[in-house]
Amino acid sequence: MSNTQKITRNDYIKMVGLIVAVILIVAGFFVGLGFVLNIDVPVRVVESGSMCVPYNDLCDGGSHVFEHTLHVGDIIIIQGVDPKDINANYPNSDIIVYQNPINPSDTPIVHRVVTSYEENGILYFQTKGDGNPTVKWPNPITEQDYDSNILWHNGGQGVPEDQVIGRVVMRIPWFGHITLFLRYNPWGLPLIIALILAVMVLEFLPIRKKKTKEIEIRAEPVNNFDI
Question: Are residues 31 and 122 in the same domain?
Fold first, then answer.
């Protein structure tokens, strides 16, 4: 094996090692974050505009970056919490993530707690999307505005404590759109893979050309001069 082939192979090994290291670091970060926050899945992406104020087709967080609510494409950090510690003092109440009481296998819902009550030893939470009709957060609301009456049709029972996944402790605007792009576009993931491969090719082509040129220069015969 020539020196050029050895150098090229080593470069590829280093690149693969770097990619693996990055993957392990990211995975370790999420595992560690989940451990610290006491939750299996500490990071999620907001997919719907039910929490956006005002609620409209332009709900992307671009014009409401510092609002205390959520927008499509936000990355949210979730903390596992004892249901008894959830703040139900609307409008300054907690935003929680929970399973749909009617169909727990559906994508988890993220809404704001508007009130809570206990019945037969079970704690229930009434919730509402900040942007859901007809009253927007932080305006006062009535029982008719609760999501349990509008969306679930479960007699106004609310979210039982065992369906609560956690509460939102941080939002990161915009970056979740990358995840949504990959999830809802069948060509999204192949495009990302193609870009990574293109970067790798562009990275190594100059190296190979440079190494080959250097070897060619060394191999040139030395001119003899008469003295």
Answer: no
